Records
---
Amino acid sequence: MTLFPSWTEVNDCWPTIVGMRRTAAETKAVILAAARERFAADGYEKATIRSIAADAEIDPSMVMRYFGNKEALFGAAAEFDLELPDLTDVPVDSLGAVLATHFVERWERDEALLILLRVGVTNAAVAERMRTIFATQLGPVVVKATGNSSDAPVRAGLASSQVLGMALCRYVLAFPPLAGMSRQEVADWIGPTLQRYLTE
């Protein structure tokens, strides 16, 4: 019985070992994916660096190396681009419908905003981050679309309340029949309200 593997055995498994090595970008992506799931499941307060590292099958020191602390990790995991469309050439009477369709599609394509929504209802810091995302991204779009900057924060805030309320009830609380509606049905219902908030 030999205590050490032969060179042939090492050579045979070397491709597997190399294949297991991740780049820094891949490691960060794995950590972020685990963090999103853990924050969504446990909330900000209960989620720990250790549990996230375990989910990612990585040493906790690596999480700290790439993100520093839990707050910074959460900020990265919850980074979210609303990817709002350019509404400049959209007819004014179609703004609500276009935004409603966009938001329903956007919610269902990326879980990061759902994580923010779940955690934000109980955590003040996360709620502030959500307010910042919507204010900084939706406000300028409203100004550009309507040409009016004086009441843009109010309009953006009201539009956000509609979109976030829909998302909370549809995706988090799963209120029937909202949870069972098609994307188009949801967009058709909230579109007129968004239209009123944006233009009337």
---
Amino acid sequence: MKLRLILVATIVLLSAVEGMAQSYGYLRVRYEIGPSGDTLRIIDLPPVYCFKRKADLSKYNRLIYNVKKVYPIAREADRRLKEMEAHLLSLSSSKAQQAYLKEAEKELKKEYTPVLKNMTFSQGKVLIKLIDRETTRTSYALVKELRGNFTAFFWQGIARIFGANLKDTYDRDGEDKMIEHIILLYEAGMI
């Protein structure tokens, strides 16, 4: 009952400040013609999560921060991977492909080593999952494909020492449902 009252009060207040809400971009206001010909104001509210403990809210806010930090990197990784694969197909010899991969690796290390060094372990774990989401391949599979079995095995060992797993997959309907919601809100400009 108390939650319903709060929800109704929120909707009434938000409809009164529609202009302000549109300018901040966290609400979407649209108009539709109803069955009786009346114009209906529709306010799309972002989802609201209720947490029993303050620690859970803190975890959620931290997850939002981590996703917002690493999601652009995962998108860029997907873009670059597609670009590299297209270029590799255009090269005729395996020697030219190896040379291209070495050069691409140097460029990536130069650009992303400082970024990755400043990441926390939890951001790294989220990045591993988001790389799987964006590329539809695990980080382990990508390293194995581009660098070989031994290198993939080596980096998997290092990741396991620090509590991560390069073979983690993204489960949008299961354990990663909250991350998926955050990404959808992020892409919609609501967070």
---
Amino acid sequence: MSIILLDIGNVLVTVDFMSFCRAVAIDLNAGPEEIFRRYCTGELKEKLETGWIGPLEYFAMIARDLQAKAMPLQEIKQHWQDIFEPLEGAVEAVRLLGEKYSLWIMSDTDPLHFTFLLNNYPLLRGADRYYLSFEHGMMKTSVGVFTHVLDSSGRSADEFVLIDDKAVNCASASQAGIRSIQFQNWPDTLALL
């Protein structure tokens, strides 16, 4: 093993989609949950994260939603990006991992989230490669995305370890022959390596 495939959300930064939902929902009682259900999970969000829907088209849908406050697309974009916080121990862990391994970012994300994270979280800038769902059109729930990593890199599966917070993504990596660690916290993850 010489390459770590690092997820971003809930591995390097925390993700709070409900803060976005509370910011845009008209009804603060049931509205945030409805906005979450419509735009922060499921098929529509997956289309954004795999590049089938562009961010402006996505925000326009939200702006037209009767459950959402009337606001300019730029304001929706700002709320969409204002959902991240640094994850405790991530900066030091990335530094330690970078001393021993090549670090490749592998994330299910959209172009606006990724650009925002890259600009605001320097720990992402030192990665050797980036495999992003909106660029290659596949989510990590698909074994095919891990086959894509192997084929495009010319490397064998035993050279990789995936660190990801979702069990389903770890299972897909395992089906492609890539070892995975389901992330809980950095001390435990570092100990498992």
